[in-house]
Amino acid sequence: MRFVIIGAGRVGLRTARVLREEDHDVTIIERDEAMIRRARTQSFTVIDGDGSREAVLEEAGVADADALGALTGDLNVNFTACMIAKHHGCRTVMRIDEAYREGIYRKYAEEVDEVIYPERLGAIGAKNALLGGTIRAIADIAQHLQIVELTITDEAPVNGYSISELQLPGDATVLAFGKEEQPLEIPSEDESLAVGDRLVVLADFDVLSEVRQLLVGERSSEAATAIDADTTTGGLN
């Protein structure tokens, strides 16, 4: 596939490297001379210019690209570039930065295919490291909703239950199930829960502690505190 990446900073250049490692064709747009030199020393094709200008985007091949990632720290540049790319039929991904507010997200999310918030993604990774192996945040998908993966422990109240016997709070739903060291699948009602099994659950922040208690047990009380502290931010804040 062909991609146009706007911005050769930390986020843009890392994204470009990952895409190239998977044998995709990547063109970067950047206007900072130092960043241009750095990207070119890594053998990237770099267009020197403002990614919010249509002529620059056309020079980068936006008309033939499968997707455009507007990954600069400038929200206005990112949004303008996405609108131009959308006109050319590109899939659009727009970065928002630490100045993020829920209102900004809602304003722009309907206009582009995907909004990313790198600082929040980094925070999820850090939280997973703090929580340890039995609870793993996968994504915050709305202001009060999170997808989490939980591993059944020997202290879990539901250990030995079947999926059909599992009674989660009303604001929580099982999305996937996997036996220990096996791929995740759509859960069958007859599957029994054993130590090491994993459940992926969509849950409202208000019931995460209750879900954790059922599937993990008392052993992860410190992890619960970490979850509760994080969720007081209201999700993607």
- Global Rg: 21 Å
The overall average pLDDT, rounded, is 82
User: Which strand order does the major sheet show?
Assistant: 3-2-1-4-5-6
Q: What string gives the helices and strands in order? A: EHEHEHEHEHEHEEEEHH
End-to-end gap:
33 Å
Number of alpha- plus pi-helical segments? 8
* Biggest beta-sheet profile: 6 strands, parallel
Find the count of extended strands (DSSP E, 2+ residues).
10
Shape by Cα distribution: elongated
Structural class: alpha/beta
Low-pLDDT segments, ≥5 res: 219-237
Helical residue percent band: 25-40%
Oligomer: single chain
Beta fraction of the residues? 15-25%
Protein described:
With 237 residues, the chain is an alpha/beta fold. The chain has helices spanning 10-21, 33-41, 54-59, 75-87, 102-109, 118-131, 208-215, 221-231; strands spanning 2-6, 25-30, 45-48, 67-70, 91-95, 114-116, 135-142, 145-151, 172-178, 198-204. It is elongated. It has 8 helices and 10 strands. Helix 7 runs antiparallel to helix 8. It is 34% helix and 24% strand.
